[in-house]
Specification:
heterodimer; A: alpha+beta; Aldehyde Oxidoreductase, domain 4; 7-stranded mixed sheet; 6-stranded mixed sheet; disordered N terminus; disordered C terminus; B: little secondary structure; two-stranded antiparallel ribbon
C-alpha cells in the first residue's frame, strides 16, 4: 500500500553522491556473461562475483524459520492471544445493492459477553459537499453482498457470532447487476451514480470529466503506438480471438485479520499484512494520530498475493472496538468473508488481433478488453500485449465494468495471467498459420536477451523434443499435447527500503527491518547476506523483521522485496564491518586500512598481525555495539533491464470423452537476477505454477443472477487445486546479472509461472486436440463444448 | 479517452501500487499496467469514497465533493 499515486513514481532522486567506476558481471553464465562498467556511489561495497564464487549467498541455505514453522512454534496473527482479548465478528450485508436505512444494535449489545459494537458510517473527513441541499446518508451504500456494515466484540467467538446475527439492518434495495455482459448494456442498473460530474447519492459527487464513464463502464483507457490500421494492411497474416477469463478470489491459508490493542499511549496492531508500514500509515491517517503512536507487528504471515495491503476494514474496525472497550480485539475474517469482501483477480473479456509478415515480423497488435473488478477498478490486462513483443504498431483499449460484487484487488501479476492467456495463445495461432515453430516465432519477435536463453533451454529439453508438431496426432480418446508460453514482469524498486545491522561486543550479529516475510523467505536471505559479509554461518545471525519499530522495509507487492531490500542489508553490513575494523584496529596495533574480514577472520593485508576470529576480534571493540542503518540506493543504471520474466512448457493429457485436462509435467525456466537462495526461488515458482493451474482449470467465483449472492464462498465448492492435480514441475533458474545494485537481485513472485502457465496449457490442449479453448476455467464442460463445437472455428469463444 | 494523471490527487487515495521508484524511461510500458491498478479510499477503506462515487486516480481530484488536499 502506498498513498503516493502513480505520477509520483517518477519523483526526482536525491542529489548524486560521489561516484566510483566499477566493473560488474552482466549476462547469463554459460551464455553471455561479460563485465560492464558501472558508475556507482563511492560508498557502495565492493562488487560481488557471480554466485559460484560466493560462500553463502546464492546457495540453497535452509529456511531461517523452517523449523519454527514445521514445529508449530511460529506465531501467526491468528495465533496471537493477549490478556483480556475480545473476539470480533462483522455484520455483513446480505443484499447486493441497497441504501441502508437503519442499523439497530440494541439486541446485540444486550447479548451476554458482548463488550462493544461498532457501526461503519460515512466519514467525510474534510469534505464539503458540493450540493448541501442533499443530505448525505448516514451509512455507505451497499454495493455487494458481504460488504461489512458493523461489528460486534465479545468475550468468545461464539458470543460475537451470535450477537452479530442479532443486529437488524433495514435496507432500501436498489436494482443490481452481477453479470458483466448485462452490466454493459445501456439500461443496466447503475452500480455507481454518474457520470461523476452529476450528483452522487451522498449529496455531491463531482469530479473531473476527463475520464469517460458510460453507465457501468469506466473507460476505455486507450494506449497507442504507431498506426495499427496501416499495420494490418502491411500484414501477410492476421490472427484473432475472443478470450474470456473468470474472477479468481484470494485463497491465502491465513485469512485477513488483525489483533488491535489500543492503549492510551500506543495502538499496537498484529496484522496479517504484506506491508507493516502501510498498515501503520493508514491507521495513523484514519485516526489522525502520529505514526509514533502506532506499532504494527507481523511475526509470521500465512500468505498474501496482493490483497493484504493497508489497514482495511478489519484494521480500522478492530482498532475502534479496542478503543471503545479498552481491551485487545481480535478480528479475523472467516473463509466466506475472504471470498466476498477482500479482493479478487478481475475477469477479462478480450478481443485480440495480431498482424504479421510471413517471416513472423509483427506489424500490428490490437486489443480491446473489458473486465470486472466488481464495484472496484483495476481490470486492465494489456501488460503482455504491450510489453512482450516488438510490433510496428499497438493499440489497446481497456475498460472496467462495474457489477454488484466484491471489489477486485491486486493479485499476483495484476492483469498479466489474463493478458498472457490471450496473447500467447494468439501467438501460437500465428505460429500455426505461418507454419513456424513456436520458439522460432518468439526468437523473431521477442528481443529480450534472457528469454532467448530460456527458449534455448526449452529447445534442448526432453519435454520440448517430445512434442509432436502436428496437432491432434494421437488416435485414442486421451490425447497428449505440449504447449509453450512466455511471461513478462517489471523491475520496480521500493526506495524506502531500509535495514539496520548491529555488531555486538560478544561477536553476535543481528539484522533488522520492518519488512514482513510473507513466506517467500526474506529472513533467510538477510541472514545469508550478513553471513557472506562476516563469514559467520547464516544460522548464527539473528534476523528480526515484521515490526514497525525497526527501520522501514518495503511492502511486499509487485515482486519488490528482495531486489529492494537486499542492497540496503548488504550496504548496512558492509558499512558496519568497516566501522568494526576501524574500531578494533588500534587494539590490534594496526590501521583500519590494513584489516580485512575474510571467512570469519580478521586478517592483516600486510601480514603484521596473526589472523583472529571474528568473535575474538569483536571482544576488542571499544563500544558495546556498532549499529548502521542503510537505505536502498537507486539502481546503478536505471535505464537498463526494465523487465524480466520466464517461459513455461506444459504437457497435458486431454480426455476427449470426459473433457478432463490433466497437466502431467511442467518445465519452468525463469530468471530473477542473481538468485539469492535458489531453493526458495524454486519454491516460489512451484507455487506460481500451482496457483496458475488452479486458475486455469478449476477456480471460479459463481454469482447468482437472481439474488446477487456468491453461491460458492468456501473451499469445497470453490475449487482449488489439490495434490492429485499438481504435476511434476521441473524448474530451471537462469542465473542472470544486470549490474544494478550491490546484490544484483531481481524479483520472482509475479513472473513465477502464474503469468504464462494458463496459455501454455491452452497451447498444449491445442497441440493435443487441434481445438483452441479460449475460456477459463477449462472445466470438463467447457472442454467438451469446445470439442463438440461446429467444425468451423472449433473453439469456444 | 485516456486517464489523466497530472493533477494532485486526493490525499486519501490509496493503492497497493508497487511502483516505488521505477526506471526513468518506464513510461513506455507503464500504460500496460496502469489499468490493472486497484484503488481504495482511506476514509472508507473501500472502493467508493465518502460521496459514494468510485475511487480512482482520475476521479479523486480537486472538485470532487470529498476531495482532501494533500498535506505538504
Amino acid at each position: 500500500m502506498t498513498k503516493i499515486p502513480v505520477e509520483d513514481a517518477f519523483t526526482a532522486q536525491a542529489a548524486a553522491p560521489p561516484k566510483k567506476t566499477v566493473q560488474m558481471p552482466v549476462g547469463v553464465p554459460g551464455y553471455t556473461l561479460a563485465d560492464e562498467a558501472r558508475e556507482i556511489p563511492a560508498s557502495e561495497p565492493p562488487v560481488w562475483p557471480i554466485n559460484k564464487d560466493l560462500k553463502y549467498v546464492g546457495q540453497s541455505v535452509q529456511r531461517y524459520d523452517g523449523m519454527a514453522k514445521a514445529a508449530g512454534r511460529a506465531r501467526y496473527t491468528s495465533d496471537v492471544q493477549l490478556p483480556g482479548m475480545l473476539y470480533a465478528k462483522f455484520v455483513n450485508a446480505n443484499v447486493p445493492h441497497a441504501k441502508v436505512i437503519s442499523i439497530d444494535t440494541t439486541d446485540a449489545e444486550k447479548y451476554p459477553g458482548v463488550r462493544g459494537v461498532h457501526v461503519i458510517q460515512h466519514v467525510l473527513g474534510n469534505a464539503v459537499l458540493r450540493n448541501p441541499a442533499l443530505d448525505p446518508v448516514k451509512y455507505p451504500v451497499v454495493r455487494y453482498a458481504g460488504q461489512p456494515l458493523a461489528a460486534v466484540a465479545a468475550t468468545t467467538p461464539a458470543a460475537a457470532e451470535e450477537a452479530a446475527a442479532l443486529v437488524k439492518v433495514k435496507y432500501e434495495t436498489i436494482p443490481f447487476v452481477v453479470d458483466p455482459a448485462k452490466a454493459r448494456e445501456p439500461d443496466a442498473p447503475a452500480v455507481f451514480p454518474g457520470p461523476a460530474d452529476e450528483a452522487a447519492s451522498a449529496g455531491g459527487g463531482g469530479g473531473p470529466s476527463d475520464v469517460k464513464q458510460t453507465g457501468n463502464i469506466h473507460g476505455p483507457s486507450i494506449h497507442k503506438r504507431g498506426e495499427t490500421e496501416q499495420g494490418f494492411k502491411d500484414a501477410d497474416v492476421i490472427v484473432e480471438g475472443h478470450f474470456v477469463t473468470q474472477v479468481q478470489t484470494h485463497s491465502a491459508l491465513e485469512t485477513h485479520g488483525v489483533v488491535a490493542d489500543w492503549k492510551p499511549e500506543m495502538l499496537t496492531v498484529y496484522a496479517s499484512t504484506q506491508g507493516t508500514a502501510g498498515v501503520r500509515e493508514e491507521l495513523a491517517g484514519f485516526y489522525k494520530i502520529p505514526l509514533t503512536q502506532v506499532r504494527v507487528i507481523t511475526e509470521f504471515m500465512g500468505g498474501g498475493f496482493g490483497a493484504k495491503f493497508g489497514a482495511g476494514n478489519p484494521g480500522v474496525v478492530a482498532a475502534a472496538l479496542s478503543r471503545k472497550t479498552g481491551a485487545p480485539v481480535r478480528l479475523m475474517l472467516d473463509r466466506e468473508e475472504e471470498h466476498l469482501s477482500v479482493g479478487n483477480r478481475p475477469s477479462s473479456d478480450q478481443l485480440l488481433r495480431i498482424g504479421a509478415k510471413k517471416d513472423g515480423t509483427i506489424t500490428a497488435i490490437h486489443l480491446v478488453a473489458y473486465g470486472t473488478a466488481g464495484c472496484g477498478t483495476g481490470a486492465g490486462c494489456s501488460g503482455p500485449a504491450s510489453n512482450l513483443y516488438k510490433s510496428a504498431s499497438l493499440h489497446t483499449e481497456e475498460s472496467d465494468v462495474f457489477i454488484n460484487a466484491g471489489p477486485g484487488t491486486a493479485m499476483r501479476a495484476p492483469g498479466h495471467p489474463q493478458g498472457a492467456f490471450a496473447l500467447e495463445q494468439t501467438m501460437d495461432d500465428l505460429a500455426v498459420k505461418l507454419n513456424m515453430e513456436p520458439l522460432d516465432l518468439r526468437d523473431k519477435t521477442d528481443e529480450h536477451p534472457v528469454r532467448r536463453v530460456e527458449r534455448q533451454i526449452v529447445r534442448e529439453s526432453e519435454l520440448w523434443k517430445s512434442r509432436n508438431p502436428v496437432a491432434a496426432a494421437d488416435r485414442g480418446p486421451v490425447k497428449r499435447g505440449v504447449g509453450f508460453a512466455q511471461s513478462v514482469w517489471y523491475r520496480f524498486v521500493s526506495m524506502g527500503s531500509s535495514a539496520e545491522v548491529r555488531i555486538h561486543k560478544d561477536g553476535s550479529l543481528e539484522v533488522m527491518s520492518g519488512v514482513q516475510d510473507i513466506g517467500s523467505g526474506i529472513k533467510t536471505v538477510m541472514a545469508q547476506i550478513l553471513a557472506e559479509q562476516f563469514g559467520v554461518p547464516p544460522s548464527q545471525i539473528a534476523v528480526k523483521v515484521g515490526d514497525t519499530n525497526y527501520a522501514e522495509g518495503p511492502q511486499s507487492g509487485g515482486s519488490v522485496t528482495t531486489l529492494s531490500l537486499t542492497p540496503a542489508v548488504r550496504d548496512a553490513a558492509w558499512q558496519a564491518s568497516q566501522k568494526f575494523l576501524a574500531e578494533i584496529a588500534p587494539a590490534l596495533g594496526a590501521t583500519a586500512g590494513d584489516l580485512v574480514l575474510v571467512d570469519g577472520e580478521v586478517r592483516s593485508l600486510s601480514g603484521k598481525i596473526e589472523p583472529l576470529s571474528f568473535k575474538r576480534a569483536a571482544s576488542k571493540m571499544t563500544s558495546s555495539q556498532i549499529s548502521v542503518q542503510a537505505k536502498r540506493v537507486p539502481d546503478y543504471d536505471p535505464k537498463k533491464y526494465l523487465t524480466y520474466g520466464g517461459v513455461d512448457v506444459a504437457e497435458v493429457e486431454v480426455d476427449t470423452e470426459l473433457g478432463r485436462i490433466h497437466v502431467r509435467r511442467v518445465l519452468s525456466v525463469h530468471d530473477c537476477g542473481r538468485p539469492m537462495n535458489p531453493v526458495q526461488t524454486i519454491s516460489q515458482i512451484n507455487g506460481g505454477i500451482i496457483q496458475g493451474i488452479s486458475y486455469t482449470l478449476l477456480e471460479n467465483r459463481l454469482l447468482d443472477p437472481v439474488y446477487g449472492l456468491m453461491v460458492n464462498p468456501d473451499l469445497e465448492q470453490y475449487k482449488i487445486i489439490g495434490s492429485r492435480e499438481i504435476p511434476d514441475i521441473d524448474v530451471r533458474l537462469v542465473e542472470t546479472y544486470i549490474g544494478q545494485s550491490s546484490t544484483d537481485a531481481s524479483g520472482i513472485g509475479e513472473a513465477a509461472g502464474v503469468v504464462s502457465i494458463g496459455a501454455a496449457i491452452g497451447n498444449a490442449v491445442y497441440n493435443a486436440t487441434g481445438v483452441r479453448i479460449r475460456r477459463t476455467p477449462m472445466t470438463p464442460a467447457v472442454v467438451l463444448a469446445a470439442l463438440h463445437a461446429p467444425a468451423q472455428g472449433k473453439e469456444l469463444a | 479517452m485516456s486517464t489523466t494523471t497530472t493533477k494532485q490527487p486526493c490525499q486519501c487515495l490509496r493503492t497497493k501500487n508497487p511502483y516505488g521508484a521505477t526506471p526513468q524511461n518506464a513510461d513506455s510500458w507503464l500504460p500496460g499496467i496502469h489499468m490493472a491498478t486497484s484503488y481504495w479510499c482511506l476514509r472508507t477503506m473501500g472502493p467508493a469514497g465518502p460521496d459514494d462515487h468510485y475511487v480512482h486516480l482520475a476521479r479523486c481530484m480537486p472538485g470532487r465533493a470529498c476531495y482532501e488536499q494533500r498535506e505538504e
